[in-house]
Specification:
The chain is mainly α and 725 residues long. It contains 30 helices and eight strands. A hairpin with a 5-residue loop joins strand 5 and strand 6. The longest helix is centred in the first third of the chain and has 31 residues. The chain starts with a helix and ends in a 7-residue tail after the last helix. It binds zinc ion. Zinc ion (ZN) binds next to strand 1, helix 19 and helix 20. Keywords: Carboxypeptidase, Hydrolase, Metal-binding, Metalloprotease, Protease, Signal, Zinc.
């Protein structure tokens, strides 16, 4: 079965993209003397050396919040000095003394950043937020110091033009090309005045992105909705009501009930709340969380950010920011991405109209004359129950979180790839609810370390993601240390931790990213594992979702506390139900992808118009093309679209849909070649899952399936029909 509703669109990868980052201080005069090794302050904190724990895992038993700022500062200074030494090398440029040397630079910074980035996202506090604010502009400036360093660029260019450069093959050739392209992308070919302008823009953009993220986290928390009586929460499970009561008590409002907001426009409780006023209240809190003035309003940030991004593209001689952003993608231009997205509009519009009519009928029975967006989820769930007799409360007992992980997610990987897992209780964690596992390769040798951080917390960003504490590289000799972070509702008062079906799918999804990191076998850190393009990186993760419903896997993990396996009939219903409500689940994702692309194909003048007015125009135009944007708003509205304003998915949200297509088409290949076999596992690992960015994406894909990607398996899986069908 292919349910990719929440899982496909919500989770994101926070891979260690900073591996290639680095250097320092805000834009200073170009005449400044080069830093020398002696200018680098001595640093002796916990990140000074590789950790002595297995796999060089971070030692959370000794790292303190106050350690990060000095470590980041020292890492920035050290990398800056290392990079300048490469640029100032009196020897003639070679691949090794220039391009490979850049890969070796910045070890201290990578060590601390890989840990800090996870903590500030998954377990933050005021101290870490302040460190983030203080260091993010410096990190951005460091990248400029590298990629706008003309001496360094000239050396890279000389290597590229040399006989040595032209003779390189395989991963070496890929490293040279991607390094060169990064320089051009970051403005290496601009003149001095333009470079100074670009540096200022980059600093401001980085500061705005951080400000947006912090405001949104705080604004989402502050927009939690308080209800006075239990009656207003009718329809929610007893456990959810107990959690709402506890949340209110924790906030000093004992006797009341608080529903926290999730990241998305639609809220999980909207499908259950029978009180229409409660639904409306929750929905409106969600869509208005960071607009309409007040302390958490993000629209001024959005406006400045969109304008600056458009100006930056112009400065680099490009038509728009999307073109700038897509320089290293599998999809090579905004036009191609937009054409791909537009291809879904006719079948999706037809599906939305059909479903809207069914829901309006169901609502009429409750005396509702006109269906509103806060009704869609509730009546969709009612119809789903009537049609499929399905209820989350029936399903959840079969999905114990740890059982799903160990006997489902891990089991599928063992059966397919031959790898095995052993829990390690001796490795320190940053939160007691986490677990750590050692991963062994098919020959029994140690392969990687894997951390799992399952539960929602007020100081954790929403969604789900994967990242590396340590990146695999044969150059450094490091093996991968990876982590998955989710937002599963924590168990209340010692009850069993249970996952929804969406959580289960998300666990498989994030573990697909983890496998991409675990199987990394590259020489260079910047080409290792998940260090791939936005519109490729979500392919292994969505591909891995398919394993959740392979019968042999499902029967192995979907068991309730009494040890009974989920009944076949119930699972069949889950599969059938997954094709219901595509109008909302796929519709909101497609609309968000189109909104993102519309924001990032503007010129500076257009980008500076009031954000809500622009969004309204975009939604009107989608409506004119047949989408029900009034009833089904985008999954994220502009003021809380974290992916595109602070998480690096700008002009990249389409990637989820593009990679979903790859995942369905790839799974179609697996099914046609004997299913979940060890031979197929080895083929998958050899063609793309263990390949990082050592080869061209389209080539890797063809090596796997033998053909270019095909849309049809995805349309079939989602049950999307063309008009008239
Ligand atoms: Zn993902």
């Amino acid at each position: 079965m292919k349910t990719r509703l929440l899982a496909a669109a919500a989770p994101l990868v926070v891979a260690a993209t900073m591996v290639s980052g680095c250097a320092s201080m805000p834009a200073e005069a170009e005449t400044e003397a080069p830093a020398s090794a002696s200018a680098v302050p001595a640093y002796s904190g916990p990140f000074a050396q590789e950790s002595t724990l297995p796999f060089h895992a971070p030692d959370f038993s000794t790292i303190k919040d106050s350690d990060y700022q000095p470590a980041l500062e020292a890492g920035i200074a050290a990398k800056r000095a290392e990079i300048e030494a490469i640029a100032d090398n009196p020897e003639p440029p070679t691949f090794d003394n220039t391009v490979v040397a850049m890969e070796r630079a910045g070890a201290l910074l990578s060590r601390v950043e890989n840990v800090f980035d996870q903590l500030v996202s998954a377990n933050t506090n005021a101290t870490l937020d302040a460190v983030d604010t203080a260091t993010s502009p410096k990190l951005e400036a460091l990248k400029d110091r590298i990629y706008l360093n003309d001496k360094l660029f000239q050396r890279v260019k000389a290597v590229r033009d040399s006989a040595e450069g032209k003779a390189l093959t395989g991963e070496d050739a890929m490293l040279l090309e991607t390094t060169y392209a990064k320089f051009v992308h970051r403005g290496a070919e601009l003149d001095q005045a333009q470079k100074a302008q670009l540096k200022d823009m980059n600093l401001r953009i980085a500061a705005l992105e951080t400000e947006f993220s912090q405001k949104l986290t705080a604004g989402t928390d502050a927009a939690a909705v308080t209800f006075d009586s239990k009656d207003q929460l009718a329809g929610l499970s007893d456990a959810d009501i107990a959690a709402a009561a506890k949340r209110a008590a924790d906030r000093g409002m004992a006797g009341k009930y608080v529903l926290a907001l999730s990241n998305t426009t639609q809220q999980p409780a909207l499908s259950q709340l029978s009180n229409r006023d409660s639904r409306k209240k929750l929905f409106e809190a969600s869509v208005n969380r960071t607009s309409h003035g007040g302390e958490y309003d993000t629209t001024a940030i959005v406006s400045e950010l969109a304008t600056l991004r458009a100006k930056k593209a112009k400065l680099l001689g490009l038509p728009d920011f999307a073109t700038f952003q897509m320089y290293d993608r599998m999809v090579t231009s905004p036009k191609k991405a937009q054409e791909f997205l537009n291809g879904f509009v006719p079948p999706l519009g037809a599906t939305q109209s059909r479903e809207a009519a069914i829901l309006a009928d169901a609502a009429k029975a409750d005396g509702i004359a006109r269906l509103e967006p806060w009704d869609w989820g509730y009546y969709a769930e009612k119809v789903r129950k009537a049609k499929y007799d399905l209820d989350d409360a029936q399903i959840k007992p079969y999905f114990n979180v740890w059982n799903t992980l160990e006997n489902g997610v891990f089991y599928a990987a063992t059966q397919t790839y031959g790898i095995t897992f052993k829990r390690r209780t001796d490795i320190p964690v940053y939160h007691p609810s986490m677990r750590v596992y050692e991963v062994y390769d098919k020959d029994g040798s140690p392969l990687a370390l894997f951390y799992f951080d399952p539960y929602a917390r007020p100081n954790k960003q929403g969604g789900a993601w994967m990242g590396n504490f340590v990146e695999q590289s044969y150059l450094t000799g490091d093996k991968p240390v990876v982590h998955n972070t989710l937002n599963i509702a924590p168990p209340v008062d010692g009850q069993e931790p249970l996952a929804t079906w969406d959580d289960v799918t998300t666990m498989f999804h994030e573990f697909g990213h983890a496998l991409h990191g675990i199987f990394a076998s590259q020489k260079y850190p910047s080409l290792s594992g998940t260090e791939t393009a936005r519109d490729f990186v979500e392919f292994p993760s969505q591909f891995n979702e398919n394993f959740a419903t392979v019968p042999a896997v499902l029967q192995h993990f979907a068991k309730n506390a009494a040890g009974e396996t989920i009944p076949d009939a119930l699972m069949k219903k889950i599969e059938a139900a997954a094709k219901w409500n595509q109008g909302l689940s796929f519709g909101e994702t497609l609309e968000a992808a189109m909104l993102d692309m519309d924001w990032h194909t503007l010129d500076p003048q257009q980008a500076s118009q009031p954000p809500m007015a622009f969004e309204a125009k975009v939604l009107d135009s989608m409506k004119a093309n047949g989408l029900e944007t009034g009833l089904i708003p985008p999954r994220y509205r502009t003021p809380y679209f974290r992916h595109i304003w602070s998480n690096g998915y700008q002009a990249g949200y389409y990637s989820y849909i593009w990679t979903e297509m790859l995942a369905h088409d790839g799974w179609d290949w697996v099914e046609k070649h004997g299913g979940m076999t060890r031979a197929n596992g080895d083929h998958i690992r050899a063609t793309f899952l263990g390949q990082g960015h050592s080869k061209d994406y389209a080539v890797m894909y063809r090596n796997f399936t033998g053909h270019d990607p095909d849309l049809n398996p995805m349309l079939a899986a989602r049950g999307l029909t063309a008009p008239g069908e």
